[in-house]
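Q: Structure tokens for this one, please.
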Amino acid sequence: MERKLSKIYTPYAILLFTFVIPLISALSAKENEIKAPSYQVKVVDGDSLEINSTRIRLTGIDAPEYMQSCKTDKNKKYNCGNKSKEFLKQLIKDKTITCISHSKDQYGRDLCTCYANDIEINKEMVLSGYAIAYLESNYQKEQEQAKLNKRGIWQGDFIHPRLYRRLKNQ
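A: Here is the predicted structure, written as tokens:
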């Protein structure tokens, strides 16, 4: 009798584990969570990502613009915007990226706190000196550490990205 029951329930078990459980998991996932392997993530610049067609702005931080130049402690110019983008690419490489959307900005981008595995990307960008704390964000402590240790853009002189954008658009 047991053999007949297992033959009857086997197709249902396959159906259950193949379709129903993954569907329930997908539906119960947080609506504001965006998740992807890093090879599906496009780094736009030091504070922006694109996952599938979703544009993401890392909330609470501001990175140098892609074409922005900064100066080293020896007064040598370098493209700090590109350096910031490249640092972010290395930070997410070969990791699972999870972003929690908090709201949208004026351009319709999701404002997110993102993680590369268990590393908070927003915080790490500021701590590394490749982004600054945006206005009154929670990353002031990390910014002070980056400044003190002369990491990234804090090694020399730079124009704050917000001011750079304003000057560029005049």
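A few notes: The longest strand covers residues 96-104. The chain has five helices and eleven strands.
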